[in-house]
């Protein structure tokens, strides 16, 4: 049954690729989200303006359009950069924006904007008195961030992070439109070849449900960790 007319191993390989895209996109989204949140909370109007443009622009453009733009436009940009380097420094460098890279960058950029708002609200939930207490105790900025702000911020941010992660997981299916052989694309091709869509789409549904179940279990453990010592009303 798992052989699926010989397509089973390739679909399983596509599932692993889907997980890789999702995890790398999440890491990029968290990094951009933290930077975006700190920029929005910064007193510097330039940083705040850049972050506002980023979150507004990314959240306003359809995901599919952005993916096509980065995949095709990104390669054209890299071609121009290569030509400029060749003409200016006589250096022959070729940078290829493949489907995997374009998919990770696009999904990371999209969810980085959502993460920025999640982290911004979470940072604002940390009481200023505790930060001031850290300063009074002589803690460095990094010690205040890692020892006071981050643990408390995470408790408030985890519900939003979890929601973004589950949506991100489903969004990985978009990479199939730019030719990446993920689980959805391989299952669709097998369904077209055999004219048996349910036989191949059902494992895809089960695969995503399994990833969702594991994610919810992991998120619950993280919430328990960062809620330790908190009395719930």
From TrEMBL:
Concerning InterPro entries, the annotation shows: AA_ABC_transptr_permease_3TM, ABC_transp_permease_HisMQ, MetI-like, MetI-like_sf
- Domain ABC transmembrane type-1 residue range list: 15-211
GO BP term, example: amino acid transport
Report the transmembrane regions from the record. Answer: 15-39, 51-73, 93-116, 161-180, 200-219
Compartments where located: Cell inner membrane; Cell membrane
Membrane topology according to the record:
Multi-pass membrane protein
Q: Which UniProt keywords apply?
A: Amino-acid transport, Cell inner membrane, Cell membrane, Membrane, Transmembrane, Transmembrane helix, Transport
Identify its protein family.
Belongs to the binding-protein-dependent transport system permease family. HisMQ subfamily.
**PANTHER family in UniProt:** ARGININE_ORNITHINE TRANSPORT PROTEIN AOTQ, CATIONIC AMINO ACID TRANSPORTER, MEMBRANE COMPONENT
Its protein name is ABC transporter permease subunit
The species this protein belongs to is Alkalimarinus sediminis
């Amino acid at each position: 049954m798992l052989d699926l007319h010989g397509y089973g191993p390739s679909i399983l390989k596509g599932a692993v690729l889907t997980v890789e895209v999702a995890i790398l996109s999440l890491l990029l989204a968290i990094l951009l989200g933290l930077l975006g949140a700190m920029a929005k909370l910064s007193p510097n109007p330039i940083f705040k303006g850049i972050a506002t443009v980023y979150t507004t622009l990314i959240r306003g453009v359809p995901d599919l359009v952005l993916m096509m733009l980065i995949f095709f436009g990104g390669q054209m940009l890299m071609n121009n950069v290569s030509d400029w380097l060749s003409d200016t420094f006589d250096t022959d460098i070729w940078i290829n924006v493949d489907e995997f890279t374009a998919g990770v960058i696009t999904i990371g950029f999209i969810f980085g904007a959502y993460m920025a708002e999640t982290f911004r609200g979470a940072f604002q939930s940390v009481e200023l008195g505790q930060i001031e207490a850290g300063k009074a105790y002589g803690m460095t900025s990094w010690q205040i961030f890692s020892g006071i702000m981050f643990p408390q911020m995470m408790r408030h941010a985890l519900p939003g992070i979890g929601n973004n992660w589950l949506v991100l997981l489903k969004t990985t299916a978009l990479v199939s439109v730019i030719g990446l052989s993920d689980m959805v694309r391989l299952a669709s091709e097998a369904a077209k070849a055999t004219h048996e869509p349910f036989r191949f789409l059902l494992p895809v549904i089960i695969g995503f449900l399994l990833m969702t179940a594991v994610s919810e279990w992991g998120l619950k453990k993280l919430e328990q960790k960062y809620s330790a010592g908190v009395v719930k009303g």
